[in-house]
Amino acid sequence: MQNGPIRLLGTGPRAAARQAGVLLTVAGLLALLGILNDPGHSDRLLLVALCDAALALITLLVPWERLHPNSPAVAGIGAFGVLGLSTWSFGGIATGTGPFLVLLYAWAALHFPRWILGAYAVPATVAYLVPLIITGQSPIVLGSAFILLPAALAIAFLIEAHARHLRDDRRRLARIEQWRTAMINTLAHDVRAPLSTVRVVLEELRETATGQQARMLDAGLRQTARIARLADGLLDVHRIDSSGELKLDRAHHPAHALVKDALSYVRDDADVRAEVDLDLRIFVDKQRFEQILLNLITNALRYGKAPVIVRVVRDGAFDRLEVRDHGPGIPETLRPRLFGQFAAEGAQGVGLGLWIVRQFAAAHGGQASAEARDPGVAMVVTFPVV
C-alpha cells in the first residue's frame, strides 16, 4: 500500500504522513467553518486554518520514506501545537481539542511504537492545558485534563498493541508464503529431472517388452506423464493464488476421447463408468479438463461410493461435465466451503482438489458446483459452448 499519492491505507512512513495530512486538512476546514459561528475571532481561526494547511502540506511533500521509519511522528507534535492554538482561538473552549487529541493518539498508535506514545504525553498535556490556563478557565475545566489525557493514552496503548499484533501476524504469514512458494517451485521444478530419467528408462524397456511386462511399462509411462502434469499443476496453483490468472490452450476436442484418456490413469479396479456422446465436441484446454476430471473422480472414490458415473452433455450454452458417486453425500457443515482451499483436509488429503477444479472452471468461463443426488452427490463443471 505504499504506492500511489492518493492512497491512505497501509503502513510505513508515507502512509502515516498521508493520514496525518488528511487529519490536519480536516482540522483546518473545521477552523474555517468555526468562523461562521464565531466571527469575532475570525482572524485567530484563519490563523489556525493556515497553520493546519501548512503542516498538512509539509506532511504530504516531505519524502518520509528516505528518513527514519518513525520520522513522521514529528508531525504529531506540530499537530498538538495547532490544537492548542485552536483552543486559544475559541477562547478556551476545548470541545474540539479533546476529540482531535484522542484522534491524533489513535493515528500515532497505528504507526509508531509505544515509547513515542508515552513521549507524546508532554506535548499533548501542554497543548491541552496551556490554552485553558491562558484564557483563565476554572479549576474544574483544568481538571478535565486528568481524565482526558490518561484515557487518550490508554486507548492509544490498546490500539498500538493490536496493531503490533496484526503486523507480527502479517510478517509471519509473509514468511509462510515465502516458504510455500519455495516449496512449490522446488517440487514442481526439481521433480522433472529424475522423472525424465525414469521415463527414458521405461521407454527403453518398453521397446523390447511384450505381454504383461509391456502393459505394466505402459501403465508406468502413463503415470510418469501424469506426475509431470501434476508438477505443472502445482505451478498453476501458485500462479492462480498469486495473480488470479491462468492461461489456457483451448481447442475443440471430442469429449468421449478426453474422458477415455483421463480414465486410463484411474486404477483398474475402480468402478468408474463413462456415459458420453461419441459425437460431442467441447471447447476446452485438454490438460486442464483432464485435471478437472481426475480430481473429481479421485474425490468421488475417496469420499463417496462406487459406482462413479462420468457424463458429458450439452445443456444450452454450456457443456456440462458431471461426476456422480453413490455415497452418503456432502455434510451440511462442509457445503459453504466445499470449493475453498483446504476444505476437506485431513488424513486423506490436503483439500486442494475441488479448489483447483473451481479455478480451472472459472478460467474457462464456467463454474463448478455440487448437486445432491439420491444417493450420493454430483460434482458439476460447466464449459461455455463456442
From TrEMBL:
Catalysis: reaction(s): ATP + protein L-histidine = ADP + protein N-phospho-L-histidine
Family matches, as Pfam families: HATPase_c, HisKA
UniProt cross-references to PROSITE patterns, sorted A to Z: HIS_KIN
Gene3D superfamilies the UniProt entry points to: 1.10.287.130, Histidine kinase-like ATPase, C-terminal domain
Keywords: Kinase, Membrane, Phosphoprotein, Transferase, Transmembrane, Transmembrane helix, Two-component regulatory system
EC annotation from Swiss-Prot or TrEMBL: 2.7.13.3
Subcellular location: Cell membrane
Bilayer-spanning residue ranges: 20-38, 45-64, 76-108, 115-134, 140-163
Domain Histidine kinase: 186-386
Annotated InterPro entries: HATPase_C_sf, HATPase_dom, His_kinase_dom, HisK_dim/P_dom, HisK_dim/P_sf, Sensor_HK_Regulatory, Sig_transdc_His_kin-like_C
Principal place of residence: membrane
Name the UniProt record assigns to this protein: histidine kinase
